[in-house]
From TrEMBL:
Residues 1-29 form the signal peptide. This is Beta-glucuronidase. It catalyses: a beta-D-glucuronoside + H2O = D-glucuronate + an alcohol. Its main location: other. NCBIfam families: PRK10150.1. Belongs to the glycosyl hydrolase 2 family. Residues 336-637 form the Glycoside hydrolase family 2 catalytic domain. SUPFAM superfamilies: (Trans)glycosidases, beta-Galactosidase/glucuronidase domain, Galactose-binding domain-like. Inhibited by L-aspartic acid. GO terms for molecular function: beta-glucuronidase activity; carbohydrate binding. Keywords: Glycoprotein, Glycosidase, Hydrolase, Lysosome, Signal. InterPro entries: Beta-gal/glucu_dom_sf, Galactose-bd-like_sf, GH, Glyco_hydro_2, Glyco_hydro_2_AS, Glyco_hydro_2_cat, Glyco_hydro_2_CS, Glyco_hydro_2_N. It is an enzyme of class 3 (hydrolase).
Amino acid sequence: AAAASGGGGAGPCTMLLPLLLLFLPGLAAGPAGMLQPRDTPSRERRELGGLWSFRADLSPGRDAGFAQRWYRRPLRQTGPVIDMPVPASFNDITQDPSLENYIGWVWYEKEVLLPPRWLQGDPAPRVVLRFGSAHYYSIVWVNGVQVVEHEGGHLPFEADISSVVQGSPGTLCRITVALNNTLTPHTLPPGSIQYMTDKSRYPKNYFVQDIRFDFFNYAGIHRPVVLYTTPAAYIGDITVSTTSSDSVAMVQYQVSVVGSTANSLSLSLRDQEGKVVATGDGPVGELKVLNPNLWWPYLMHENPGYLYSLEVKMQAQVGGALLEDVYTLPVGIRTVHVTSTQFLINGRPFYFHGVNKHEDADIRGKGLDWPLIVKDFNLLRWLGANSFRTSHYPYAEEIMDLCDAYGIVVIDESPGVGIKLPESFGNKSLQHHLAVMEELIRRDKNRPSVVMWSVANEPASELPPAAHYFKTVIAHTKALDPSRPVTFVTDANYALDHGAPYVDVICVNSYFSWYHDPGHLEVIPLQLTAQFENWYKTYQKPIIQSEYGADSVPGLHSDPPLMFSEEYQKALLSEYHAVFDKKRKEYVIGELIWNFADFMTNQGTTRVLGNKKGIFTRQRQPKAAAFVLRDRYWKIANESSCLPPVITSHSLFL
């Protein structure tokens, strides 16, 4: 558990949680769309990464920042500040152990100069401040004026700050963020604050953050902060869906315009050579593409991840001015279909041979880092992995962009991890979960790489309230996006799971001979076979082994294999693979190793500097298991590939 302690006064035992909830109003419906910021002929963007001023509120109730209104003046005038990189988690940046495990409000600030052209014109352009994500609850001020609040640590939020900056003297823009990482039974992910009141054992005002998930609760501004402009009347949202046959594809589209009624709205679909292959006009319609280049997964086609560019142009009259907005959206043409035994992409059987990941690395925590992202994709392709699950929260848009471009298939998961307590299945939690799915689908609905939504990971789905909860969340998700299957990842007994009846694909986690019968590799064939047969007999739905694995300490060896050695991890994988090979001829449609790389967790007697189930170390160096998995994945790719000649890891990647 993470811990923090304060000085005298009322103390966090009485102040911290109420203070968080004070700033959790009823969640209002978000805007209809939130297009990813891009530079276009009508739009400009400016990233605000780098060093921000930072201050943790160390007052006993963590409320000094609000009581003293730190947002009203430069943060440096409120007391000591330090430099903090953005994007990054704040936990591992300093040598201060109290910041490593800090719970409560922290404050960020950045002062930027806006280009004068952003503040001029009739009408002046719209200026928007956007956060890729900040964990967990955010309140944002610009020049002392509150502009947005947002609950959730893994999805973008933004505010139109035009009236604030255009009404201020000069071009200085002071952005202040108050950020709280406290988790409650009703947040996603959930958590709880435990107050340690035994004064003989704990300091005054001592509390810990309890969580029921196995990764470190990093906090901070984790993804890029961007200022961008649009015309006063602008393209607000674009939704596309695709169908295809051998010789023709249809791209259905819907475009919304905000700020005025469009005088004209035109669309052009271009291939990768820039050639226009289809055109349309109006806010709703479809484009016909002859002899389309389909979006195929990596290792399923010689040209995976094919993307067209959909250019949308709008003209609108605002006052006496004729405004034009242009936005370009990458579009992949592909279909997804699920049968009782198969997962079909473009009508062909697809087998998930991939990984589970985390956004996690030394020093930066969950902060977006381009060298790490590119390294991870190079390792995925070296491995022969064609897919991953965004365990256990939505990943950065920059990562998703590369999945689209490289043909890496994604199971897109919400932050619904650690839903274990009965109170986390109540209406308050349910309503927030529905809102999170709306935000996730709004962000990723147009991505060809996203083939399935996962609404949760390892919830207590054996509890009776889980039936209504997951029936509602899954139905809501399907209503928002009828084009994709929906699942959640279970570790419950097949006969007791109340949520499984509502999913399209069974995703099951199991750790035979690790958490169950530890050290006994000989039980895996019997237990894993029974797992698959019981689930399939009950539900007649395709199954993905969504997690399996074993911890291994790099460089620790033992023969015969013993737990935590690299040999034991290899041996466990081999036992699982033998069963997979039998069942993938029937109804098993995928296997996702836990985990791609070692990652940080809370401290505990079973965790030595984090979870060691990675096939790569946290520094992305391979363990012995990485080579076992690589040989297997390339073999599977060769068996199922439509490519001539036979694929090798050298011909397609090295």
